[in-house]
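Slide 14.
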Amino acid sequence: MFEGKTAVITGAARGIGQAIAIDLAEKGADIVLCDLQEEWLEETAAAVAKTGKKVICKELDVTSHDAAQSVFQEIATESGSIDILINNAGITRDGLLMRMSEADWDSVLAVNLKGTFNCTKAVTRTMMKQRSGAIVNIASIIGLMGNAGQANYGASKAGVIAFTKSIAKELSSRNIRVNAVAPGFISSKMTDALSDDVRNAMLEAIPLKRFGEPKDVANVVTFLASDMAGYITGEVINISGGMVM
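Slide 15: predicted structure.
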């Protein structure tokens, strides 16, 4: 499906980013992993290497415009092309608005929204020269429905959704597609640590009555990055077990 193509995944060290990297590699893509978590990044790289595909690791602070420009230029030079970009890097700093610090607001917007801007801008020149490319941004259902205690996170992911639609219109004439996915509750160390009461309350809100798995997100991202989605751009696909319809 992706033979001869290069995919860059930010926030690739674990969780959803790791699952996406492995899935794209299993389907033929060479992989570039970008993150600041060096130890976990090596773990993901080892898993990708088992597929037999080429894997490169790049340390990248997505909040830095200059760093993004530099790293993506390196990738384009080393790989010859950048065919797929997955903007997955993201953080949370939850808290009620009355108690939320300015630093917690700024850091979440910087990583989740500005980081998506920085990396998308950095890859655009290469993709425009190629006259092809697929960008998939990882948003969240919180960007669609909101959630108490996550004003910063919700605002950042709503911004990612609007950014996706705007950039899709800008880049479509160069055969570059831009889409987003909005995951719901996905199994992670955080959900594993929840009490039974909290878990059950969360599950009650999910029509399919289970948490999603990182692979559930990876499956949709891989589809959107592939030629099977060649006539899809500017879309946001919810992966929430029915929480948002």
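Speaker note: The chain has nine helices and seven strands.
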